[in-house]
Specification:
244 residues; alpha/beta; Rossmann fold; six-stranded parallel sheet; 10 helices; globular
Length: 244
């Protein structure tokens, strides 16, 4: 019997390591796939590539951070292919207008300049300070996050920055999501705080919200057992038959 597909979409500069604990937990029951985006420079192109490369049949899609943005693009293009949707440490909002948006743009380009002049690890060490719970700074887990970023490339970083700066406003999609949906984040996630997940929870019918204590942005690595328990409950939810 063919195992159902679980697509685990990584975020900005992340790879298989961000989902390692989940692949280990679910590989006996699901075909776990962690896509690679290469140097694709739009979220739409990432979503199209993931859909093109995915096996036939229903897809359970979990996206972390930028991966959640890719998941929204997949839903916009092929909702009939998605049986379950999990959005972890992510958001729906577009680049803000005016000064706030310019600050975000400048901040992302400043990190890119560090990556180009000092290397990816130097950039990651500055960037990742706010990505994990303060108690995990300087720990082996924090170094594993730096290792992951360093495995990528400056070219991929530049492309993904452009993709995020051009992100859509996914707000109009939220009420149209009609599959079992999990919204999950760390209590201390400073990049995608609980309030954003609470907003999505309020606008996605029947969704489930989980906020993990003592956890920052890298929830899948910081609190893998808690994340796995939430994903297990999510996958057990019965999908609505939308093929009729």
């Amino acid at each position: 019997m063919t195992r159902p597909t679980l697509l685990l979409l990584p975020g900005l500069m992340c790879d298989h390591a961000v989902w390692a604990a989940q692949v280990e937990a679910f590989s006996t029951s699901h075909e776990c796939i962690v896509p690679r985006y290469g140097t694709l420079a739009s979220l739409a192109a990432m979503a199209e590539q993931v859909l093109d490369e995915a096996p036939p049949g229903p897809l359970a899609v979990a996206g972390h951070s930028m991966g959640g943005r890719v998941a929204f693009e997949m839903w916009a293009r092929a909702p009939q292919r998605i049986s379950h949707l999990a959005l972890l440490d992510t958001s729906w909002h577009p680049l803000p207008p005016g000064a706030e948006g310019e600050r975000e743009r400048a901040g992302r380009y400043a990190l890119l300049a560090i990556a180009r002049t000092q290397g990816l690890r130097a950039m990651a060490r500055e960037w990742a300070q706010g990505m994990v719970h303060p108690s995990r700074l300087g720990t082996p887990l924090f170094e594993a996050v730096l290792d992951m970023f360093e495995r990528s490339s400056v070219e991929a970083f530049a492309a993904q920055i452009e993709a995020l700066l051009a992100r859509r406003d996914a707000g109009p999609l939220l009420p149209r999501i009609s599959v079992p949906t999990l919204l999950l984040c760390g209590r201390e996630d400073g990049w995608s705080p609980p309030a954003r997940h609470e907003y999505m929870h309020a606008h996605i019918p029947g969704s489930t919200l989980r906020v993990i204590e003592r956890c920052g942005h890298m929830s899948t690595m910081e609190q893998p057992e808690v994340v796995n328990a939430a994903l297990r409950d999510w996958l057990a939810e019965r999908a609505i038959d939308r093929t009729i």
